[in-house]
Amino acid sequence: MKELQNDRFIRACLRQDVDRTPVWMMRQAGRYLPEYRATRAKAGGFLKLCKTPELACEVTMQPIERFNIDAAILFSDILVIPEAMGMELTFGAGEGPKFPSPLQSHADVEKLPIPDPEDKLGYVMGAVRTICSALDNRIPLIGFAGSPWTLATYMVEGGGSKNFSKVKGMAFTQPKTMHLLLEKLADSVAIYLNAQIANGVRAVQIFDTWGGILSTSDYKEFSLNYMQRIVQQLDRDYEGNKIPVILYSKGGMGWLESIADTGCDVVGLDWSIDIDQARERIGHKVALQGNMDPGMLYASPERIRAEVKDILRRFGHHNGHVFNLGHGITPDVPVENAAAFFKAVQEESAQWHQK
Ligand code: CP3
């Protein structure tokens, strides 16, 4: 692999020195950008966008061309894995994802195959290669997947949920079925992320959006264990490059020590914790990513800058911080406010890296 022109993001993930704090934003390619909405209309829907490598590349590059960002993230969705396992998936206009035939029985889970990513998810691999050639080693591309538990919530609930009654019902009344599902998902995700790495991504993030709905012991049993199983299977040294692994469990700030103990390189923070406290707890082991409240993007550019400065001050003069939001940017954020966020991190962070 060729050297990156801007490797700040990778260096920060590995807790090496940088000239300023790198920044990217979860969901940086998305509906808040008018050019994204235009490309999605041209594609004829969100899933078509994901499945057409040239268009997935186009939307991945849109925020990169507009702002000065230190990493690109593959444009795709976590739910392409269950679809590749044979479950029908739809995204209606203005609705969330739906699985019309959710998993119910042990037999349903037994039938699920572990998909070959080059075959069933070839369009994702095509997108990774197309994006890497468009990026031309300027900045790294981040690959990603959902955590087994988070994928299971959608596969068992049939879509988004308020109470998670079906997936918790399965976990607590049919634990063998749930564990079989989580095992299959962990192995599918590990093979899938390794294929993304082989096709050119320079880091991977596991999104555990729904780990935080569990109790401490259930989080360990149903979510963290399986993320650890993935971390252990990943190709973390690829063609001489270290491939950092980021784990992000929304609502999981009570479990930071256990998350850091999986052996990941970076722990993603939501906005419910002060970053100085997170650093005191686990900063000797891992880098931290985060953690501005995405809702702060509804404030003025001045207020956004003040918040960025406060997070930088709390983190202090240390290595190992990747600036990000605590969750994805929402569709109705004004583009100027997203621009103000990136600019503030770039302008305010260098002073924290002077020797
Ligand atoms: O960060 C990025 O820019 C990369 C792209 C990305 C998408 N989804 C694109 C997307 C990533 C990393 C995801 C991950 C994802 N998908 C998660 C985990 C992260 C998180 O936000 O918690 C989850 C839970 C999903 C499942 C999913 N996909 C939901 C619940 C929805 C509907 C959400 C909504 O806001 O309506 C999606 C759709 C989706 N995924 C969109 C995008 C840009 C919006 C689709 C559209 O254009 O209409």
Describe this structure as you would to a colleague.
With 355 residues, this protein is α/β, with parallel strands linked by helices. The chain has a single domain (29-286), classed as TIM Barrel. It is 48% helix and 12% strand. It has 16 helices and eleven strands. The chain has helices spanning 8-13, 34-43, 46-51, 53-66, 80-84, 106-110, 117-120, 122-135, 148-157, 165-173, 175-199, 216-233, 256-260, 275-282, 301-315, 335-349; strands at residues 72-73, 90-91, 97-98, 141-146, 203-208, 237-238, 241-242, 245-249, 266-268, 287-292, 321-325. The chain has a seven-stranded parallel β-sheet with strand order 1-4-5-8-9-10-11. It has a two-stranded antiparallel sheet with strand order 2-3. The chain has a two-stranded antiparallel sheet with strand order 6-7. The protein starts with 7 loop residues before the first helix and ends in a 6-residue tail after the last helix. The mean pLDDT is 97. The structure holds coproporphyrinogen III (CP3). Residues 26-31, 40, 46, 73, 75, 77-79, 96-97, 144, 146, 160, 207, 209, 328 line the site of coproporphyrinogen III.
Summarize the structure.
This protein has 16 helices and eleven strands. It has helices at residues 8-13, 34-43, 46-51, 53-66, 80-84, 106-110, 117-120, 122-135, 148-157, 165-173, 175-199, 216-233, 256-260, 275-282, 301-315, 335-349; strands at residues 72-73, 90-91, 97-98, 141-146, 203-208, 237-238, 241-242, 245-249, 266-268, 287-292, 321-325. The mean pLDDT is 97.
